[in-house]
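Q: I'm a student working through a structural biology exercise. My instructor gave each of us a protein and asked us to get a predicted structure, then write a short paragraph describing it. Mine is ABA4-like family protein. I'm not confident about reading structure output yet, so if you can add a plain explanation after the tokens, that would really help. Here is the sequence I was given:
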Amino acid sequence: MTLFDVAFPLAVPFWAAMILAPKWRWTPRIMASPWVPLLPLACYFALVLPHFGEWGRAMLRPDLGVLQGILATPWGAGLVWAHLIAFDLFIARWMYFEARSRDISPWIVSPILVLTIFLSPFGLVVFLVVRSVRIRSAA
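A: Happy to help. First, here is the predicted structure for ABA4-like family protein. I'll explain a few features afterward.
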């Protein structure tokens, strides 16, 4: 098993809590921690630190060919995967609390969170539309 294989399973309990048990008394307590994305980020750090110079040079002078070469490596693909998992979870955490504060039903938010797992940009846009509709209807 590689760090690539570990990144998503580390995030699954948090996703499950937000999607399957959004009103469970422990879900908001658990999700309140800003450290929720830390577990997948641990994979990111473990992958980037041994290659920090190479990654840093690629980020300082972005070049498509160089980036393609890095992403074609196991550590590069794992690095980007862990990054995506962590930041998707960070966005989902914000959506979860924003929905609660706007009194948006979990029956609406949970499917959006599932969409966010697979296609986070689409999930975020759908959530922002739902949020905008909710804000306008509350005014």
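A: Here are two points you could use in your paragraph. Helices lie at 3-20, 26-31, 38-48, 52-60, 64-71, 74-101, 106-118, 120-138. The mean pLDDT is 94. It's a good idea to check both against the output above yourself.
Q: Great, thank you!
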